Amino acid sequence: MRSQRPATSKLISGQDSMKRGFLSNPIVIFGHTVDKAVFTHVVAIGLPTILYYFILLNGWDLLALHLLIPTGYLVSSLIIIAEALVAGFWYTPLHRRQWLRARSGRVAQLARQPLAVGSPGRPQKEPSIPRCTYIVAAYLPNEQEIILETLRHLLTRVERPQGGLEVILAYNTPTCLPVEADLQKLAAQYPELQVLKVEGSHSKAENLNAALPIVTGEMTCILDADHQPAADSIRRAWRWLEGGRYDVVQGRNVIRNYNHNLLTKLVAVEFECLYGVSHPAKSLIADTAVFGGSNGYWRTSALCNIRFNPGMLTEDIDANLRTLLKGYRLVHDRSIIATELAPVSVRSLCSQRKRWDQGWLEISLKYQWPILRSDQFNLLQKLYWTSLLVYSKIFSVLSIQVYPVILALVLSHTVAPASIQAYVWFTTGVTFLSGPLQTLAAWKARDSTLKLPTAHFILHGLLITPYSAFKNIISIVAIYDHLLRRTEWVVTPRNLISLR
Known about the structure:
By secondary structure, the protein is an alpha/beta fold. It has 18 helices and eleven strands.
């Protein structure tokens, strides 16, 4: 049972165990990442090149690899194309779906039904929305310059539900900071704000778990310190939860500092591809969703039952899979908008993405077999989650094998068998088509509030191949670090510079 908020103090302390430390020197970690990237790719490309070269010298062929590698690219590309077509060109906003339903025949409805997640519908009158809680998780030495802006946004710009609003800041800090006094002043000004300092915490998961016992809302939204939800987010989210069919709805995260530099422009369009195309397509095709760690609205009873595991690098995906395995249901709604900040430097992006990749690998090894055995997933959902977990990690290794194969062919003065050359060219064409098609779908479905320029989408389409190769390098390094049990947690820098 959840306890009521304490009436005696705005500053609440909690004791949690220390599971994982924050490392706040991304420059050092970035240097190590570059070294590891060189080493891993020398191993992953150099050694196979020697092996394939001797295979060809002995009169054998590489037919199996000539078929396997293009097929891997083809499968990945077809998934991307399917998601782009569904979410970019079939997916329609809620009011347009109702208009189509009202004007289409029964046959057309049945034809669309296998692709459509049950819509929350547009009620005849606005429903009474119960009390909602926002939990904002923060590591203040890193986020002290942006946390007040985030809290003021929640307290002044988000529409209040009829049942009331509660905002809990769950933070940790190794030293006392001047901003803590400002937080107390803000809490005195807004009684709905609770400031929770989690003593001994070294992770977002510990901060969130410490906040759960004092939550009083029927619906709870998890937010990172840089996330700012749109004004109507609570109303849009509750439509999915009120009927009881879904327990979690994941919103759409968009980048608001997209004009900072070239990197933030690429990340902004990448997020449009992810949250505007890929995630909605999964909900439409397989009736499942990915909880991204922020801007996710939970039925509070389900969230208190699941909680977060501080021992996982990606505690959000761990909670996501445990939620699905327990029979709860998740859906994605790209109309529930929250803006966030993209990393502004390559080293920050490398640190962030390596942790994500290593965390997904950790999740894959832990949950792939339980998913296949679970009766909470239908066949399509099992295939989709397998593609997200195991297949994506296998493909990151398989995809770079194209380089040692080509090098071995050149060194041995041989050519690929003529019988499969047409297949290789076909898969290559499909692969190069999939990226720009996804970008086009993201442009079509782009969020209108920030007005991300069309030029940014064109830039992303032109640079998608080298950008994807860059992310694949990080993925290989993550596999290497996981094998060596290196689990450094590097905080993504959040400061005033990243706002510009």
